[in-house]
Amino acid sequence: MDDIDKKIITLIQEDPDMTHSKIAKVIKKSQPTVGIRIKKLRDFRFLKINQELISHFFYALLSTTSFKQYSQLSIHSFSEECILIML
Fold first, then answer.
1. pLDDT for 48-66, tens place per residue?
2. Mind giving me the DSSP string for 12-65?
3. Which residues 6+ apart lie within 8 Å of 81 measured at CB?
4. What CATH architecture is 3-43?
5. Neighbours of 23 (CB within 10 A)
6. Cβ contacts of 4 within 8 Å, gap of 6 or more
7. Over the stretch 22-41, which tens digit does the pLDDT of each residue have?
8. Which H or E run contains 11?
9. By C-alpha distance, which of 44, 46, 2, 9 is closest to 26?
10. I need a surface site. Which of 4, 30, 36, 73 has the fewest CB within 10 A?
11. Could you tell me which residue ranges the HTH asnC-type domain spans (predicted)?
């Protein structure tokens, strides 16, 4: 981990919704470079996706939209699949 990685982590801690493009502008690197570094930070567990929070978000979103006709289990299964895709 170098100073650039530390800056990326700090920026994400300050604003978890910050886009790769915004981070790239702040640290003066390209967006693909930022994306690669974030992926490596996740792979080495320096950054972790809060799976429980994402699962609750998907559950809340899907249970209030047109997915009402689906069972709770279907909604949960869908949210788990989305989390796996993001990892």
1. 766 666 666 666 666 665 5
2. HHH-TT--HHHHHHHHT--HHHHHHHHHHHHHTTSS---HHHHHHHHHHHHHTT
3. none
4. Orthogonal Bundle (1.10)
5. 21
6. 27, 29, 37
7. 999 999 999 999 999 998 98
8. helix 3-14
9. 9
10. 73
11. 1-43
Tokens coding 1: 């981990």
Tokens of residue 84, six digits: 């796996």
Q: Tell whether the model's pLDDT for residue 87 goes beyond 50.
A: no
The pair of structure tokens assigned to 76 is: 């949960």
Per the CB < 8 A criterion, the answer to whether 50 and 58 are in contact is no
What is the spatial distance between Cα 27 and Cα 23, in angstroms, rounded to a whole number? 6
